[in-house]
From TrEMBL:
Transmembrane segments: none annotated. This is Tetratricopeptide-like helical domain superfamily. PPR repeats lie at residues 135-169, 170-200, 204-238, 239-269, 275-309, 310-344, 345-379, 380-414, 415-452. Gene3D superfamilies: Tetratricopeptide repeat domain. The keyword Kinase does not apply. PROSITE patterns: PPR. Keywords: Repeat. It comes from the Eukaryota.
Length: 488
């Protein structure tokens, strides 16, 4: 029998706190693994309960905890980092439940995002003690977080020390780490590491492709071609992926003529069968360059050759129409996509919504947001952020706050950008009470594990002190203290 939580459909969290908490205390039967609705309801409860009540419920209620359920809850709590770690730690003491490696990885990722490295390594130690890890994925998570925090040297040391934690390095982990460095634009560091370790790990085409793609991300196509030559000299045969990387590099660098010539050369090489990725790259490349007619010709050529466009192809084409042509033409392609049986994804809707917002058609953008939900395509934080940002740019702060409230009611959790945009808008409008709203948003974002900029703290603190709100300023100072010594 499913627990009472299965029947909870939270739409107005404030009014349901009491009844939800009561349901949690009254669970008396062992339930099977919970569905997504249960994970969502439990996540809501975890956010509302204080530490003592949460401890009591986790220890004494009869929810049937499974790794799958815990992983779903941790994902729901992603934007509530401190609460997620608290839940994870409390559940670890549960008498009948043991965390899986995947759950540890989720918790480590959350702690690393918060830059709470002491907790990260404590979790790694506990993984090892329980013999569920760490594994290569664990180290991929940690190194990626160190790199994104501006600590690439630390990431390299972590990668090189994997064996000390009982985790063997191999070609896959080597390639993963190279990819982490390249995608964070530390391409020279990745290339130097590659040169030193390529024989030890027996670098393959994937290794070379990663480095070449890294240089293409930096718009350094000549360096990418050098890597391609090194690859051939080492006895490895370039793959279609290799050629697609170089092709994308040309267009990304704005070298449209060179990209087109490279594309034609690919067509002439019979052994190089082009795929939907090849054509999508060219369609997008011409579109970004403003050559819409040429983009359409390549799009039609692809279909004529029997290469069916993917959703990503349509997304690329719709995006360039929105940016370089006309949003109404983009919507026509969107409708064409639907008629041909394609299912738009969140990216498709986001591109259309952004295009409508850009030309000031906010009401239609909101219609597409509703259509998105009707089509069972969940809006993501980027969807909401686009609408909130454009409402703020137009001075429609109240409308942006209404959209923000929809996020808070469980549709999608806000991220750091959401808060920054809204707080900046509060200062831009300068209406009575906006400073207090900005302060409350700041405290909420800290509660959810985000680290605001020092400038944001100082701006709000100065405003509160100048307007005589010393008590609230103390709350802001307390929140600032929770962000670490660098902020004090």
């Amino acid at each position: 029998m499913l627990s009472p939580l299965h029947k909870l459909h939270i739409r107005n969290p404030t009014s349901l706190v009491c009844s939800v908490k009561l349901s949690f205390y009254n669970l008396t039967t062992i339930t099977p693994p919970a569905a997504d609705d249960d994970a969502s309801s439990l996540s809501f409860l975890i956010l509302k309960l204080d530490p003592q009540a949460l401890t009591h419920n986790l220890e004494f209620n009869s929810v049937y905890w499974t790794p799958d359920l815990v992983n779903k809850i941790l994902k729901h709590l992603w934007n509530h980092g401190p609460k997620a770690i608290q839940f994870f730690n409390l559940l670890e003491r549960h008498p009948t439940y043991t965390h899986s490696a995947a759950s540890f990885d989720h918790a480590i990722d959350i702690a690393a995002r918060l830059r709470n490295y002491k907790t990260v390594w404590a979790l790694v130690a506990r993984m090892r003690k329980r013999r569920v890890g760490p594994n290569p994925k664990t180290f991929a998570i940690i190194t990626e977080r160190y790199v994104s925090a501006g600590k690439p040297d630390k990431a390299v040391r972590v990668f090189l020390s994997m064996q000390e934690y009982g985790c063997q390095q191999d070609l896959n982990s080597f390639n993963t780490f190279l990819d982490v460095l390249c995608k964070s634009r530390r391409v020279e560091m990745a290339y130097n590491l590659f040169k030193v370790l390529k024989r030890r790990f027996r670098a393959d085409t994937i290794s070379y492709n990663i480095i070449a793609n890294g240089f293409c991300l930096l718009k350094r196509t000549p360096r990418a071609l050098e890597v391609l030559r090194e690859m051939v000299e080492s006895g490895l045969e370039p793959t279609l992926k290799t050629y697609n990387v170089i092709l994308n590099g040309y267009f990304k660098a704005g070298q449209v003529k060179e990209g087109w010539q490279f594309f034609l050369e690919m067509k002439r090489r019979r052994r190089c069968e082009m795929d939907v990725v090849t054509y999508t790259t060219v369609v997008h490349g011409f579109g970004v360059a403003g050559e819409i007619q040429k983009a359409r010709q390549v799009f039609d050529e692809m279909i004529g050759l029997g290469i069916l466009p993917s959703v990503a192809t349509y997304n690329a084409y719709i995006q360039v129409l929105c940016k370089k042509d006309n949003v109404e033409n983009a919507i026509l392609v969107f409708e064409e996509m639907l008629k041909k049986g394609y299912t738009p994804n969140a990216t498709t809707y986001n591109v259309v919504i952004r295009g409508l917002c850009h030309v000031g058609k906010m009401d239609r953008a909101m219609e597409y947001l509703d259509k998105m939900k009707d089509d069972e395509c969940d809006p993501n934080v980027q969807t909401y952020n686009v609408i909130i940002r454009y409402y703020c740019d137009e001075g429609e702060i109240d409308k942006s706050l209404k959209v923000f409230d929809r996020m808070g009611n469980g549709e999608c959790l806000p991220n750091l950008d959401t808060y920054n945009v809204l707080i900046s808008a509060m200062f831009g409008r300068k209406r009575s009470g906006d400073l207090m709203v900005a302060g409350k948003l700041l405290i909420e974002m800290v509660d959810r594990g985000f680290i605001p900029r020092k400038f944001t703290f100082n701006r709000i603190l100065n405003g509160l002190l100048l307007t005589g709100n010393q008590d609230f300023a103390k709350e802001i100072l307390t929140a600032q203290g929770r962000c670490g010594s660098d902020y004090c």
